[in-house]
Design goal:
single chain, 365 residues, alpha/beta, seven-stranded mixed β-sheet, 11 helices, binds pyridoxal-5'-phosphate
Length: 365
Amino acid sequence: MEFCDLKVQYAAYKGEIDAAIQSVLASSAFINGPEVKALEGELAAFSGAAHVVACANGTDAIHAALLALGIKPGDEVIVPDFTFFATAEMVALTGAIPIFADIDPDSYNVTPASIERKITPRTKGVIPVSMFGRMPDLEGIGELARAKGIWVMEDGAQSFGAERGGRRSCSITQVATTSFFPVKPLGCYGDGGAIFTSDAGLAATLRSLVNHGSAKRYQHDAVGMNSRLDSIQAAVLRVKLRHFGDELKSRDRAAKMYTERLKGKVGKVAVPTAGEGGFSSWAQYTIRVADREKVQAHLQGRGIPTAVHYPIPMHAQKAFAHLGGRDADCPEASRAAREVISLPMHGMMTEDQIDGICRAVNEVI
Ligand SMILES: Cc1ncc(COP(=O)(O)O)c(C=O)c1O
Protein backbone atom coordinates (compact mmCIF):
# COMPACT_ATOMS: atom_id res chain seq x y z
CA MET A 1 0.00 0.00 0.00
CA GLU A 2 1.19 3.53 -0.78
CA PHE A 3 0.71 6.46 1.61
CA CYS A 4 -0.40 8.62 -1.31
CA ASP A 5 -0.88 6.46 -4.39
CA LEU A 6 0.09 8.57 -7.38
CA LYS A 7 0.57 5.49 -9.56
CA VAL A 8 -3.08 4.51 -9.47
CA GLN A 9 -4.04 8.14 -10.16
CA TYR A 10 -1.73 8.28 -13.20
CA ALA A 11 -3.13 5.01 -14.51
CA ALA A 12 -6.66 6.46 -14.30
CA TYR A 13 -5.80 9.61 -16.31
CA LYS A 14 -2.91 8.22 -18.38
CA GLY A 15 -4.42 8.86 -21.82
CA GLU A 16 -5.25 12.49 -21.06
CA ILE A 17 -2.00 13.23 -19.25
CA ASP A 18 0.23 11.66 -21.89
CA ALA A 19 -1.58 13.60 -24.62
CA ALA A 20 -1.28 16.87 -22.67
CA ILE A 21 2.48 16.37 -22.13
CA GLN A 22 2.99 15.40 -25.78
CA SER A 23 1.23 18.55 -26.89
CA VAL A 24 3.61 20.73 -24.83
CA LEU A 25 6.57 18.84 -26.29
CA ALA A 26 5.24 19.47 -29.80
CA SER A 27 4.67 23.18 -29.09
CA SER A 28 8.10 23.65 -27.44
CA ALA A 29 6.52 26.44 -25.33
CA PHE A 30 8.10 25.08 -22.16
CA ILE A 31 7.92 28.13 -19.90
CA ASN A 32 5.03 30.56 -19.45
CA GLY A 33 3.33 29.21 -22.56
CA PRO A 34 -0.38 29.09 -23.31
CA GLU A 35 -0.86 26.15 -20.93
CA VAL A 36 0.24 28.28 -17.97
CA LYS A 37 -2.07 31.13 -18.96
CA ALA A 38 -5.00 28.74 -19.41
CA LEU A 39 -4.26 27.09 -16.06
CA GLU A 40 -4.21 30.45 -14.28
CA GLY A 41 -7.65 31.25 -15.69
CA GLU A 42 -9.01 27.87 -14.65
CA LEU A 43 -7.56 28.16 -11.14
CA ALA A 44 -9.15 31.60 -10.79
CA ALA A 45 -12.52 30.26 -11.92
CA PHE A 46 -12.26 27.27 -9.58
CA SER A 47 -11.11 29.17 -6.49
CA GLY A 48 -13.10 32.38 -6.91
CA ALA A 49 -9.98 34.58 -6.68
CA ALA A 50 -9.86 37.27 -9.37
CA HIS A 51 -6.15 36.88 -10.18
CA VAL A 52 -3.85 33.87 -10.13
CA VAL A 53 -0.10 33.93 -10.72
CA ALA A 54 1.45 30.50 -11.22
CA CYS A 55 4.95 30.00 -9.88
CA ALA A 56 7.58 27.33 -9.32
CA ASN A 57 6.47 26.00 -5.90
CA GLY A 58 4.46 26.80 -2.78
CA THR A 59 7.53 28.08 -0.93
CA ASP A 60 8.33 30.68 -3.60
CA ALA A 61 4.64 31.60 -3.62
CA ILE A 62 4.91 32.65 0.05
CA HIS A 63 8.23 34.41 -0.58
CA ALA A 64 6.89 36.37 -3.56
CA ALA A 65 3.71 37.32 -1.70
CA LEU A 66 5.74 38.61 1.26
CA LEU A 67 7.91 40.70 -1.09
CA ALA A 68 4.83 42.02 -2.91
CA LEU A 69 3.33 43.08 0.43
CA GLY A 70 6.48 45.09 1.08
CA ILE A 71 7.79 43.14 4.05
CA LYS A 72 11.05 44.54 5.45
CA PRO A 73 13.80 43.22 7.72
CA GLY A 74 12.76 43.52 11.36
CA ASP A 75 9.01 43.38 10.63
CA GLU A 76 7.09 40.74 12.57
CA VAL A 77 4.83 38.22 10.84
CA ILE A 78 2.71 35.83 12.86
CA VAL A 79 2.73 32.20 11.68
CA PRO A 80 1.48 28.98 13.25
CA ASP A 81 3.92 27.18 15.50
CA PHE A 82 2.57 23.96 13.99
CA THR A 83 3.06 23.96 10.21
CA PHE A 84 5.47 22.86 7.50
CA PHE A 85 8.74 24.77 7.85
CA ALA A 86 8.32 26.81 4.63
CA THR A 87 5.69 29.11 6.14
CA ALA A 88 8.06 30.44 8.81
CA GLU A 89 11.18 29.94 6.70
CA MET A 90 10.07 32.42 4.02
CA VAL A 91 9.30 35.08 6.63
CA ALA A 92 12.84 34.68 7.98
CA LEU A 93 14.34 34.66 4.47
CA THR A 94 13.01 38.18 3.87
CA GLY A 95 14.74 39.30 7.09
CA ALA A 96 11.44 39.62 8.93
CA ILE A 97 10.84 37.79 12.22
CA PRO A 98 8.43 34.86 12.40
CA ILE A 99 6.35 35.03 15.58
CA PHE A 100 4.82 31.71 16.51
CA ALA A 101 1.14 31.46 17.47
CA ASP A 102 -0.37 28.40 19.14
CA ILE A 103 -3.05 26.25 17.51
CA ASP A 104 -6.51 25.06 18.41
CA PRO A 105 -6.14 21.35 19.31
CA ASP A 106 -9.16 20.17 17.26
CA SER A 107 -8.58 22.01 13.99
CA TYR A 108 -4.77 22.27 14.28
CA ASN A 109 -5.24 25.87 13.10
CA VAL A 110 -4.35 29.23 14.57
CA THR A 111 -7.33 31.22 15.88
CA PRO A 112 -8.12 34.93 16.17
CA ALA A 113 -7.38 34.70 19.91
CA SER A 114 -4.03 32.91 19.51
CA ILE A 115 -3.00 35.47 16.87
CA GLU A 116 -4.14 38.46 18.91
CA ARG A 117 -1.91 37.43 21.81
CA LYS A 118 1.13 37.78 19.53
CA ILE A 119 0.38 41.16 17.93
CA THR A 120 2.86 43.94 18.72
CA PRO A 121 3.44 47.38 17.17
CA ARG A 122 5.93 45.68 14.80
CA THR A 123 3.42 43.13 13.46
CA LYS A 124 2.80 43.59 9.73
CA GLY A 125 0.76 40.52 8.93
CA VAL A 126 -0.30 36.98 9.71
CA ILE A 127 -0.07 33.79 7.66
CA PRO A 128 -2.76 31.35 8.82
CA VAL A 129 -2.12 27.88 7.39
CA SER A 130 -5.11 25.73 6.41
CA MET A 131 -3.68 22.66 8.10
CA PHE A 132 -4.32 19.24 6.64
CA GLY A 133 -6.91 20.79 4.28
CA ARG A 134 -9.17 22.48 6.84
CA MET A 135 -9.45 26.26 6.65
CA PRO A 136 -9.07 28.34 9.82
CA ASP A 137 -11.58 30.99 10.94
CA LEU A 138 -10.45 33.35 8.19
CA GLU A 139 -13.44 35.67 8.73
CA GLY A 140 -12.54 36.14 12.40
CA ILE A 141 -8.86 36.50 11.56
CA GLY A 142 -9.74 39.02 8.83
CA GLU A 143 -11.80 41.10 11.27
CA LEU A 144 -8.98 41.12 13.80
CA ALA A 145 -6.48 42.06 11.09
CA ARG A 146 -8.62 44.95 9.85
CA ALA A 147 -8.95 46.25 13.40
CA LYS A 148 -5.17 46.04 13.93
CA GLY A 149 -4.17 47.28 10.46
CA ILE A 150 -2.27 44.15 9.42
CA TRP A 151 -2.59 41.96 6.32
CA VAL A 152 -3.62 38.27 6.12
CA MET A 153 -2.14 35.68 3.75
CA GLU A 154 -3.68 32.20 3.75
CA ASP A 155 -1.06 29.50 3.25
CA GLY A 156 -3.33 27.13 1.37
CA ALA A 157 -0.58 24.69 0.38
CA GLN A 158 -2.61 21.85 1.91
CA SER A 159 -6.13 23.13 1.29
CA PHE A 160 -6.72 23.83 -2.38
CA GLY A 161 -10.33 22.73 -2.95
CA ALA A 162 -11.41 23.25 0.67
CA GLU A 163 -14.42 25.44 1.50
CA ARG A 164 -15.64 27.49 4.40
CA GLY A 165 -18.95 29.34 4.53
CA GLY A 166 -19.41 28.68 0.82
CA ARG A 167 -16.07 30.23 -0.16
CA ARG A 168 -13.07 28.33 -1.40
CA SER A 169 -9.58 28.26 0.01
CA CYS A 170 -7.28 30.87 -1.54
CA SER A 171 -10.16 33.27 -2.33
CA ILE A 172 -10.78 34.90 1.04
CA THR A 173 -7.65 36.67 2.24
CA GLN A 174 -5.87 39.66 0.67
CA VAL A 175 -3.39 37.24 -0.85
CA ALA A 176 -3.14 33.44 -0.62
CA THR A 177 -0.74 30.77 -1.78
CA THR A 178 -0.83 27.10 -2.64
CA SER A 179 1.48 24.27 -3.59
CA PHE A 180 1.14 21.71 -6.37
CA PHE A 181 3.81 19.40 -4.90
CA PRO A 182 2.89 15.92 -6.23
CA VAL A 183 1.18 14.64 -3.06
CA LYS A 184 -0.90 17.77 -2.45
CA PRO A 185 -4.66 17.50 -3.08
CA LEU A 186 -4.02 19.01 -6.54
CA GLY A 187 -0.50 17.95 -7.42
CA CYS A 188 1.64 18.10 -10.55
CA TYR A 189 4.58 15.92 -11.62
CA GLY A 190 7.32 18.01 -10.08
CA ASP A 191 7.24 21.29 -8.21
CA GLY A 192 4.56 23.91 -8.78
CA GLY A 193 2.68 26.61 -6.92
CA ALA A 194 0.38 29.59 -7.29
CA ILE A 195 -0.49 32.91 -5.69
CA PHE A 196 -4.06 34.22 -5.51
CA THR A 197 -5.39 37.72 -4.96
CA SER A 198 -8.36 39.87 -5.79
CA ASP A 199 -6.18 42.99 -5.91
CA ALA A 200 -5.19 43.79 -9.50
CA GLY A 201 -2.22 45.94 -8.45
CA LEU A 202 -0.83 43.23 -6.17
CA ALA A 203 -1.32 40.67 -8.96
CA ALA A 204 0.72 42.79 -11.38
CA THR A 205 3.50 43.15 -8.80
CA LEU A 206 3.48 39.39 -8.17
CA ARG A 207 3.56 38.57 -11.87
CA SER A 208 6.62 40.75 -12.28
CA LEU A 209 8.32 39.50 -9.08
CA VAL A 210 8.20 35.85 -10.10
CA ASN A 211 9.82 36.77 -13.44
CA HIS A 212 12.93 38.75 -12.38
CA GLY A 213 10.91 41.88 -11.60
CA SER A 214 10.17 42.20 -15.28
CA ALA A 215 6.92 42.85 -17.12
CA LYS A 216 8.67 43.48 -20.46
CA ARG A 217 11.61 41.41 -21.69
CA TYR A 218 14.99 42.69 -20.47
CA GLN A 219 13.36 45.61 -18.63
CA HIS A 220 13.55 45.09 -14.87
CA ASP A 221 11.45 47.34 -12.64
CA ALA A 222 12.40 45.55 -9.41
CA VAL A 223 14.66 42.84 -8.08
CA GLY A 224 12.66 39.62 -8.20
CA MET A 225 12.98 35.87 -8.51
CA ASN A 226 13.04 33.22 -11.22
CA SER A 227 9.95 31.32 -10.15
CA ARG A 228 7.92 30.39 -13.20
CA LEU A 229 5.78 27.31 -13.67
CA ASP A 230 6.83 24.89 -16.41
CA SER A 231 4.25 24.40 -19.16
CA ILE A 232 4.44 20.60 -18.75
CA GLN A 233 3.39 20.98 -15.10
CA ALA A 234 0.58 23.33 -16.11
CA ALA A 235 -0.64 20.82 -18.68
CA VAL A 236 -0.66 18.03 -16.09
CA LEU A 237 -2.51 20.27 -13.63
CA ARG A 238 -5.14 21.18 -16.21
CA VAL A 239 -5.95 17.50 -16.72
CA LYS A 240 -6.06 16.86 -12.97
CA LEU A 241 -8.20 19.94 -12.36
CA ARG A 242 -10.89 18.39 -14.59
CA HIS A 243 -11.06 15.44 -12.21
CA PHE A 244 -10.41 17.41 -9.03
CA GLY A 245 -14.06 17.75 -7.98
CA ASP A 246 -14.47 13.96 -8.04
CA GLU A 247 -11.19 13.46 -6.19
CA LEU A 248 -12.22 15.88 -3.47
CA LYS A 249 -15.49 13.97 -3.00
CA SER A 250 -13.56 10.73 -2.90
CA ARG A 251 -11.13 12.09 -0.25
CA ASP A 252 -14.11 13.25 1.77
CA ARG A 253 -15.71 9.80 1.51
CA ALA A 254 -12.43 8.21 2.64
CA ALA A 255 -12.21 10.58 5.62
CA LYS A 256 -15.79 9.77 6.63
CA MET A 257 -15.07 6.04 6.41
CA TYR A 258 -11.98 6.46 8.60
CA THR A 259 -13.92 8.49 11.15
CA GLU A 260 -16.82 6.01 11.32
CA ARG A 261 -14.39 3.20 12.08
CA LEU A 262 -12.13 5.07 14.52
CA LYS A 263 -14.28 7.55 16.41
CA GLY A 264 -15.57 5.12 19.03
CA LYS A 265 -12.12 4.92 20.61
CA VAL A 266 -12.72 7.93 22.81
CA GLY A 267 -9.64 8.93 24.74
CA LYS A 268 -7.45 6.67 22.65
CA VAL A 269 -7.75 8.12 19.18
CA ALA A 270 -8.76 11.70 18.36
CA VAL A 271 -10.20 11.90 14.85
CA PRO A 272 -10.11 15.06 12.72
CA THR A 273 -13.19 16.93 11.45
CA ALA A 274 -13.89 19.37 8.62
CA GLY A 275 -15.44 21.87 11.05
CA GLU A 276 -18.99 23.26 11.18
CA GLY A 277 -20.13 24.12 7.62
CA GLY A 278 -16.66 23.42 6.29
CA PHE A 279 -15.34 21.14 3.56
CA SER A 280 -11.80 19.89 4.00
CA SER A 281 -9.62 18.91 1.06
CA TRP A 282 -8.16 16.25 3.39
CA ALA A 283 -4.56 16.74 2.39
CA GLN A 284 -3.94 14.47 5.36
CA TYR A 285 -6.13 12.33 7.58
CA THR A 286 -4.30 12.90 10.83
CA ILE A 287 -5.25 11.32 14.15
CA ARG A 288 -3.79 11.68 17.62
CA VAL A 289 -2.70 8.72 19.69
CA ALA A 290 -0.96 8.44 23.02
CA ASP A 291 1.78 6.03 21.95
CA ARG A 292 2.64 7.03 18.41
CA GLU A 293 5.75 4.90 17.98
CA LYS A 294 3.84 1.76 18.95
CA VAL A 295 1.01 2.53 16.52
CA GLN A 296 3.45 3.31 13.71
CA ALA A 297 5.43 0.13 14.28
CA HIS A 298 2.29 -2.02 14.36
CA LEU A 299 0.94 -0.51 11.14
CA GLN A 300 4.32 -0.86 9.47
CA GLY A 301 4.28 -4.56 10.40
CA ARG A 302 0.96 -4.87 8.53
CA GLY A 303 2.43 -3.13 5.45
CA ILE A 304 0.66 0.16 6.14
CA PRO A 305 2.74 3.32 5.69
CA THR A 306 2.18 6.29 8.01
CA ALA A 307 3.76 9.71 8.35
CA VAL A 308 4.16 12.35 11.04
CA HIS A 309 3.09 15.85 10.02
CA TYR A 310 4.97 17.40 11.84
CA PRO A 311 7.22 16.12 14.63
CA ILE A 312 8.91 19.40 15.60
CA PRO A 313 7.07 22.69 16.14
CA MET A 314 8.60 25.83 14.64
CA HIS A 315 9.83 27.28 17.94
CA ALA A 316 11.86 24.10 18.56
CA GLN A 317 13.53 24.04 15.12
CA LYS A 318 17.29 24.56 15.28
CA ALA A 319 16.99 27.26 12.59
CA PHE A 320 14.85 29.31 14.99
CA ALA A 321 16.74 28.56 18.22
CA HIS A 322 17.93 32.20 18.34
CA LEU A 323 14.30 33.31 18.78
CA GLY A 324 14.25 31.58 22.16
CA GLY A 325 10.81 29.92 21.87
CA ARG A 326 9.69 27.52 24.58
CA ASP A 327 7.14 24.67 24.60
CA ALA A 328 5.16 26.58 27.23
CA ASP A 329 4.57 29.44 24.76
CA CYS A 330 2.71 27.16 22.36
CA PRO A 331 1.61 24.15 24.43
CA GLU A 332 -0.97 22.81 21.95
CA ALA A 333 1.45 22.92 19.02
CA SER A 334 4.03 21.11 21.16
CA ARG A 335 1.50 18.44 22.19
CA ALA A 336 0.27 17.97 18.60
CA ALA A 337 3.87 17.45 17.44
CA ARG A 338 4.18 14.59 19.97
CA GLU A 339 0.83 12.90 19.24
CA VAL A 340 -0.13 13.21 15.57
CA ILE A 341 0.11 10.46 13.01
CA SER A 342 -1.23 10.62 9.44
CA LEU A 343 -2.87 7.61 7.80
CA PRO A 344 -2.77 6.87 4.05
CA MET A 345 -4.93 9.35 2.12
CA HIS A 346 -5.49 10.09 -1.57
CA GLY A 347 -8.33 10.44 -4.02
CA MET A 348 -8.52 6.76 -4.98
CA MET A 349 -8.62 4.84 -1.70
CA THR A 350 -10.84 1.81 -1.51
CA GLU A 351 -13.13 0.80 1.34
CA ASP A 352 -11.13 -2.43 1.71
CA GLN A 353 -7.93 -0.45 2.25
CA ILE A 354 -9.57 1.75 4.88
CA ASP A 355 -11.08 -1.29 6.61
CA GLY A 356 -7.63 -2.89 6.81
CA ILE A 357 -5.96 0.26 8.14
CA CYS A 358 -8.64 0.85 10.79
CA ARG A 359 -8.49 -2.81 11.84
CA ALA A 360 -4.75 -2.45 12.37
CA VAL A 361 -5.19 0.80 14.36
CA ASN A 362 -7.89 -0.81 16.50
CA GLU A 363 -5.68 -3.86 17.16
CA VAL A 364 -2.85 -1.76 18.51
CA ILE A 365 -4.86 0.61 20.67
C1 LIG B 1 1.79 24.46 4.85
C2 LIG B 1 2.77 24.41 3.72
N1 LIG B 1 3.31 25.56 3.29
C3 LIG B 1 4.19 25.59 2.28
C4 LIG B 1 4.58 24.44 1.64
C5 LIG B 1 5.63 24.52 0.57
O1 LIG B 1 5.20 24.07 -0.66
P1 LIG B 1 6.27 23.54 -1.75
O2 LIG B 1 6.74 22.21 -1.30
O3 LIG B 1 5.48 23.48 -3.03
O4 LIG B 1 7.35 24.55 -1.83
C6 LIG B 1 4.05 23.21 2.05
C7 LIG B 1 4.46 21.96 1.39
O5 LIG B 1 4.54 20.92 1.99
C8 LIG B 1 3.11 23.20 3.12
O6 LIG B 1 2.58 22.06 3.56
